[in-house]
Amino acid sequence: EVQLQAFGGGLVQPGESLRLSCAASGFTFSSAAMYWVRQAPGKEFEWVASINSAIDRITYADSVKGRFTISKDNAKNTLYLQMNNLRPEDTAVYYCAMGITRGQGTLVTVSS
After folding, report:
1. In DSSP terms, which residues pair with 21 in a beta bridge?
2. Are 112 and 15 spatial neighbours (Cβ–Cβ below 8 Å)?
């Protein structure tokens, strides 16, 4: 069974940083394409970033490019999202995903 659990969210001020983690199990993590998506209050889901080690490809949404970094540690079966220079519009529940499976999210609130 595929299991994904994101954690590391919290309340930060604009300009601060957070690192989200996602613990993965139930599939071959090292070869899987992984994603971060988010859902702001009252809005649709938004794709944030993708990492596909098999083809050495990392992509970001324009809204986070240059501020967020996606990475993965295959030895730990863990996906990361380093978020720098956070903005109020980054406030959302963040989820990690693999294929059509999305795990439990973690809330990030950016507010002064």
Report:
1. 7, 80
2. no
Give the whole-angstrom CA distance, residue 96 versus residue 37.
6
Which region holds residue 100: left if phi is over 0, alpha if psi is between -120 and 50, else beta?
A: alpha
Inter-residue contact 97 to 103 (CB < 8 Å): yes
Q: What are the strands of the beta sheet with 78-83, ordered from one edge?
A: 3-7, 18-25, 78-83, 68-73
For residue 94, list its beta bridge partners: 38, 106
SS3 labels along 53-94: HHHCEEEECCCCCCCEEEEEECCCCEEEEEECCCCHHHCEEE
Alpha-carbon Rg for the chain in angstroms: 13
Strands 106-110, 10-12: parallel, antiparallel or unpaired by DSSP? parallel
> What pLDDT digit, counting tens, does each position of 45-83 carry?
999 999 998 888 999 999 999 999 999 999 999 999 999
| Surface-to-core class of residue 63, CB atoms within 10 Å of its CB (0-12 exposed, 13-18 middle, 19+ buried) | middle
